[in-house]
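Open question from group meeting: does this chain pack into something compact, or does most of it stay loose? Before anyone orders reagents, we agreed to write out a predicted structure and look at it together. Recording both the input and the output here so the notebook holds the full record.
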Amino acid sequence: MTEKEKMLAGLAYKAFGEELLGERQRAKEILFDYNALRPSEIEKRDSLLKQLLGQTGTNFFIEPPFRCDYGYNISIGEQFYSNYNFTVLDCNRVTIGDHVFIGPNVSIFTAGHAIDPEMRAAEVEFAYPIHIGNRVWIGGGAIINPGVTIGDNSIIGSGSVVTKDIPANVIAAGNPCRVIRAITEEDKRQFESTSL
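Structure tokens returned:
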């Protein structure tokens, strides 16, 4: 098994071999160009992201600067929006649904390091996939850790550190992130007078 195959299988692997290092360098080159474009050059930015990411919807917008490790492990759905300083360590798959909003300074980490100090010094890593459902809103400064799933329609409060799965249709916040309450019909009524 190659180190890349181990990485994608969620097994212990070493990230500094020629193949993985080369793929990270390719992503950095594309992101350098992406992050240097003028604000008006939206079509060029979209074109670069389509080269980099594994899958995109038709309509998406990522405010620069944006950073990731590989790009090809990231899938974003329709009507995706991310604010400034979005960072994704996509050493495993990151799947993001439709109509997802990401606040500024959000970080998504599939990668982690060995707990044992000798293994950590030997540069052994792991990576577990992350899944974010449809119509999720992640508040600014939140951190999503390896292996987490966030269910459809849920909200993650600003500054949260998500270490475990969050179910659908809830508001969750804190460090560690925990469910605060369910999203209810009362939440919808708050905006009923607004014309949509």
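Observations to bring back to the group:
DSSP finds five helices and 19 strands in the chain.
The helical segments are 3-8, 18-36, 42-52, 117-121, 185-189.
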